[in-house]
Amino acid sequence: MKWVVLLVFLFWSAGLCSALGPCWLFGAPESACVDMMPGGWSGPQDPPSPYNIQVTYIPDSHSFNVRVAGDQFRAVLLQARRPGSTEPVGTFHPPQFSDLKLLTCSAPGDSVTNSLPIMKTEVEVTWAPPSQTNLGSIYFVSTVMNSCRNYWVGVQSEPLSELTRDIFWPGTVPDGYLWSTATASYQIEGAWNVDGKGESMWDRFQHNNGRFAGDDACKSYDYYARDVEMSDELGLNAYRFSLSWTRILPDGTVAGGINQAGIDYYNNLINELLINGKTPYVTLYHWDGPQTFQDQFGGWVNEAIVDYFNDYARVCYQAFGDRVKHWVTFNEPWSFVVGGYGIAGGAPGIWDANKTEQYKAAHNAIRAHARAWHTYDEEFRADQQGSCGIVIGSLWSEPLDPNNPQDVLGSYLYQQFFMGWFANPIFGNGNYPQEMIDIIAANSQREGWPQSRLPVFTEEEILYNRGTADFVGLNQYSARLIYASNDTSPVDPNGWFNWMSIMIPDLLGYRETIDPSWPQGEMIFLLVTPWCVRRQLDYFRSEYQYDGPFYLTETGISEAEFEQPNFEDIWRTCYYTLYTNEVVKAVELDGVDHRGFFAWTLMDNVEWGSETHERFGLFYTNFSDPARTRTPKDSVASYRDIATTNGFPVGAPHTETARAIWDWCLTKEPYEGTSPQAATFNTGGIRQADPTVDYFLPGVRVGAAYRDKVVN
Ligand code: BGC
From the CA atom positions of the chain, what is the Rg in Å? Predict the structure, then answer.
């Protein structure tokens, strides 16, 4: 439907502002109104105007209250618009006619004459977007007159996307949207050395650290059919999982032989998914690479791995690509290169005081990604008609003080060193972010290195990297606040958390903190900040001029392992209510081409170094039971309601529940139950990082590294 125009409300008293009244009233474009202004008028005043617009969202009526206020005025023209357009979007509900007064201009160029008092200082109207309207980055704009001579054009509000940051938004995502969970081979399969599987880096790393839970994990190698059944109980239409490289190629290479039992296992799983109507969404590398490569040539720091990865990818496309249409090359390369080759927090467990190895590992991971994408593009796409992308994980960052340019810069650099490290070569100009190149070069020079510690892509490689993704998956869990600091020492022992100073060792002069009001889950890195989803999407779109497709490939919250199983995971219901609503907002309010939501995770699994002590599952896994029984937690029902209705349709019972619990879910209370030890660690509302405790981040263990390598 084509939208009819705007609202006008004039304050009528005794006559008619002959040209303007009817013009505005009947909705002619503003330019026409201006053209009709009688000659001699002084025309629009320069900003700043003495007027402002305040907009509030009214959840009950799913509408916006727009209030224009300021100095006295006689008339207001109000529109909702998109950036760069003067066309109004939608219609306003005009105020009562009794409120309207007549504005008279006795002669062109004259000032206003009135027989009755007509001046006002504020006016309020409502605007209700019809459900399903794609509001994009709409904002409100008004033209305010205080006389026929003086009027201000373009007094505007914040975009609605900001105004709707913390509100519940009833609405839905389009049909065909993928609703899923996400899992990873090492974390669920078990059967670590069964049926010909080779040793992975994570097998070795855990064993070296005396950890064995991953050997059997959830036994999904045996019980995969139950996993698919659970996905069905959740009402999901997609299923994200990863392939174990060494289950398919035991020593990592094709020359070493393809393990038919491994191919059979994944064929069975994929077929089971398809029979049950679930789209397979398959990750080639979720961190469990071949240990042989680590032993023989240093694993990811050696360029040799690029060819091997490409061979492995080709084997997978060949074996499964007739049925798999969504390929992910890497899950969160940041996590495994920093965790594995920087801070010894994940496999293969390298602590690198020189700060060189993580950059080399990342360099080869990016090359391997680009190569595997080109292989798909050139050899398989035409036949298989699928797509190939990457999953990037990063925290969202905001300046602690948005008015301090140094904090703003720090928050931007944080994105560059975290997400941009991988996003810029693939979605940007093909190279590392320039800021990263410059900063690491300067640091290297100061440290006496003959050249930068950041490897250099050739011109050819830059071209080859660029555009090598058919979609991007973002793992979006949480946010941070960044501030500039004169203290450039690499570690901030008093910092709330040392993620930045340890894991982004080249970004000196900035520190990382959080807002004490943010709710916190059991894992210290996990602050509940659902709004980070839309902000990061918005950033990604503008930074890389990339419009999608986007997927939210992981998000979730854990609880500690309780002595008795606890199925009443209200925190997870809250968490998924908040985070799924953000993708609904991204689609409806921001016009994002968003195509799937993947809850982390299907069932409690081996949370890397934390083993089974961190439970992220929608289903509870009984690790004492040889059959690894899985039992639904309460959140299964709530996630199913959301997934099976594409979000929060107006009038659905769960939409009303979500509306009712929304504000509470934004408080700390629902999350307190995630940690039986919360009382011990809680200091003024923020659980402090305790250097004597090992904290686990996605795949990386910081406490031990911090204590052993930095403090001592
Ligand atoms: C990883 C998962 C991990 C989850 C929770 C993600 O970054 O991809 O493997 O289990 O975080 O820590």
Answer: 28
